[in-house]
Amino acid sequence: MRAYLYDNLDTDCREPHEQNPSVPVSVEELEASGVLYWRLKDENFEDQIDKICADRNYKNRDQITVSKQGLGELFDAKIKTFFAEHLHEDEEIRAILEGTGYFDIRDKQDRWVRIKVEAGDLIVLPAGIYHRFTLDSNNYLKAMRLFKEDPVWTPLNRPCDEYPYRKAYLNVIEAN
Ligand SMILES: CSCCC(=O)/C(O)=C/O
Ligand SMILES: [Fe+2]
């Protein structure tokens, strides 16, 4: 995982969009926005996932393959939905199994921070954070999705500042 400020250029979102010079964003800075990160080791990948699930009460899991083959005729529509700035009522928890991609999150100053993920990364985006997702130029990512009960990942596109989970998110972040 590597995180940095987005350059805000209006070119293909699958490009890195790293500023020049780059402005790195640390794991601690991500945490200040409520984003959690773990690096999972190959040797005991499943054990580490199981421990995080037990600690954080994630009871269920499934897998998604974000690629033309994996999503079939839904691919173009899904990719568009993922990259529209949105939030969810629930956490978005993804353990990357194969491939690469970018999660962009809005930090406390409402700047886009780009998080490059690869196999072995586990990321938790808190409920209520504005974010988006895109593949990179490899056009392939397979992820495990973790969730507590039935997940509520309906994307609510910005602006939705009046939703209770957005307000709850801002309250937690401001107290940090
Ligand atoms: C890497 S999983 C696909 C992206 C997704 O599920 C989502 O909600 C993006 O915001
Ligand atoms: Fe999302």
From TrEMBL:
Q: Which cofactor does it need?
A: Fe(2+); Ni(2+)
Locate the residues binding Fe(2+): 86, 88, 92, 131
Q: Which residues form a coiled coil?
A: none
Query: Any idea which positions bind Ni(2+)?
Result: 86, 88, 92, 131
From the UniProt record, list the reaction(s) this protein catalyses.
1,2-dihydroxy-5-(methylsulfanyl)pent-1-en-3-one + O2 = 3-(methylsulfanyl)propanoate + CO + formate + 2 H(+); 1,2-dihydroxy-5-(methylsulfanyl)pent-1-en-3-one + O2 = 4-methylsulfanyl-2-oxobutanoate + formate + 2 H(+)
Pathway listed: Amino-acid biosynthesis; L-methionine biosynthesis via salvage pathway; L-methionine from S-methyl-5-thio-alpha-D-ribose 1-phosphate: step 5/6
What's one Pfam family the UniProt record gives for this protein?
A: ARD
Q: What is its main location?
A: cytoplasm
Give compartment(s).
Cytoplasm; Nucleus
GO terms (molecular function) for this protein are: dioxygenase activity
Q: Which domain of life is it from?
A: Eukaryota
EC numbers on record: 1.13.11.54, 1.13.11.53
Key words, A-Z:
Amino-acid biosynthesis, Cytoplasm, Dioxygenase, Iron, Metal-binding, Methionine biosynthesis, Nickel, Nucleus, Oxidoreductase
| Cofactor annotation remark | Binds either 1 Fe or Ni cation per monomer. Iron-binding promotes an acireductone dioxygenase reaction producing 2-keto-4-methylthiobutyrate, while nickel-binding promotes an acireductone dioxygenase reaction producing 3-(methylsulfanyl)propanoate.
Q: Which SUPFAM superfamilies match?
A: RmlC-like cupins
Function noted in UniProt:
Catalyzes 2 different reactions between oxygen and the acireductone 1,2-dihydroxy-3-keto-5-methylthiopentene (DHK-MTPene) depending upon the metal bound in the active site. Fe-containing acireductone dioxygenase (Fe-ARD) produces formate and 2-keto-4-methylthiobutyrate (KMTB), the alpha-ketoacid precursor of methionine in the methionine recycle pathway. Ni-containing acireductone dioxygenase (Ni-ARD) produces methylthiopropionate, carbon monoxide and formate, and does not lie on the methionine recycle pathway.
The family assignment reads: Belongs to the acireductone dioxygenase (ARD) family.
Which HAMAP family does this entry report, sorted A to Z? Answer: Salvage_MtnD_euk
List the protein's name: Acireductone dioxygenase
Organism of origin:
Linnemannia gamsii
